[in-house]
Amino acid sequence: MDFSVDAFRATPAFDILTKLFGQSEHTDWLDESMSWKQTCYIGDWSFLPQTRFRGPGVPDLFSGISVNSFQRFPVGSSKHVVQTNTQGHIMSEGILTRLDEEDYVFHGPGGDRARYHLEHGDFKATAEDEDWFVYQVSGPSSIPLLLDLTGDERLLDTRYMHTLSTTVAGQPVRALRQGMAGEVGFELQGPREAGRAVYDAVVEAGQRYGIRRLGNRTTPINYLENAIPTRNLDYLPALYEPEEADFLAHLLGSPWHIPRAFIAGSFEGASLSDYYRDPVELGWTRQINFDHAFRGDAALRKKLAEPERVLRTLVWNSDDVVDVQRSLYADGPHHTFMDMPRDLRGHLWVDRVERDGALVGTATSRGYSYYFRTMLSMAVLNTADAEIGTRVEVVWGNPGDPPKRIRATVARAPFKPVRSRVDLRAHLAALQARSGPAG
């Protein structure tokens, strides 16, 4: 198999976001994108691969391949687990929940990485596929909505990244408090066969609270505003090194693995490693703990001590963005098409970011935020060029198309204020003091 950059650029793109997130729009993407700021939404993440791990050796299994510490991992809690290679580059990641003393479930492609090491190691653990529904219900009015649905006030005392067993529509569900949108909310999980009843109950009860169903055109803006880098959309997993040849062969037999990203944009890396990222430059430093040995620990010690690059948001100049669209109405060659609110084909779209003509980083996940009325992107920038307010330029366009230099301003990441960890009782009291249930 050809692992050159040219081969990844030549790979035909397809509508991966529809494959993953389902229907494109339910109301329309403008309306849906306001939901996690003003009311609430339900989004379906059931497409994520899910792996059930059981046995006393599960913490040891994950410890050797993850930057996270597992010395403290109480039953009912979850961790964002980040897996790296020997150079400290990200291999995969996902959410691991401890259901019971020796019972865990992993949501995300990182389950394959753990399963591979389980098969090639000596761990007192087992692994099997799991099949759950996973519905995120998030936004200001999600809390009164979920209280109505469950009648369970324990939700208000559930800590961030902890779970609670409750019921919805007579179905047992596990509610994980999380905040992909940077807002208050819970992720409802349970057996696939109960999923339709739970989903319909949330939508019906949510009418009172202004609920929206999240389509695939809007979902990436959720990630962008809250600065959630995504595999194959913001970085390439470090699969394509000689040391990972056996693991890559294992992955190619997995139904969950997308063997190629679909590289586009003005940045032209010399090799695929130019599209790898490490947890320091993606802002995942709180996950790193050196109380155990893991692949890449030495490299990450150096990166943490002297970070070379950091994650930021770029605010694109609106006049320059309009120039790109305007070129479609003029004779002759035009600039590379800029889809709205973002590219829907699932490209790893990576553009050059320059300052005074010199390369200082790369921009990914370019998308239009209707709430903020501006074009945004995530960017990994050299630390010397990452001060908030710094003016840079994004070189927009695929190689061969007329390039457009778009002025941009460095902003913090996440761009949207993060409210996911607020006290839920105080949040509910504030809602009730303003106007009662939202919607």
Search tags:
439 residues, alpha+beta, Elongation Factor Tu (Ef-tu), domain 3, Gyrase A, domain 2, 2 domains, 6-stranded mixed β-sheet, 6-stranded antiparallel barrel, 27% strand, globular
Can you describe this structure?
The protein is an alpha+beta fold and 439 residues long. It has two domains: 5-12 and 227-411, Elongation Factor Tu (Ef-tu), domain 3 (Beta Barrel), CATH 2.40.30; 27-219, Probable tRNA modification gtpase trme, domain 1 (Gyrase A, domain 2), CATH 3.30.1360. The chain contains 13 helices and 19 strands. It has helices at residues 5-10, 16-21, 29-32, 35-38, 58-63, 110-119, 142-150, 195-206, 219-225, 245-252, 297-305, 318-326, 424-434, and strands spanning 40-44, 50-54, 78-84, 90-100, 103-107, 126-129, 132-138, 163-168, 171-177, 185-191, 211-213, 263-264, 309-316, 348-349, 351-355, 358-369, 374-382, 391-396, 404-411. The strands form four sheets. Strands 8-9-10-7-1-11 form a six-stranded mixed beta sheet. It has a six-stranded antiparallel barrel with strand order 13-17-16-15-18-19. A five-stranded antiparallel beta sheet has the order 3-4-5-2-6, covered by helices on one side. Strand 4 (90-100) and strand 5 form a beta hairpin. Helix 7 packs across helix 8. It is globular and about 60 Å long. The model has no long low-confidence stretch (mean pLDDT 93).
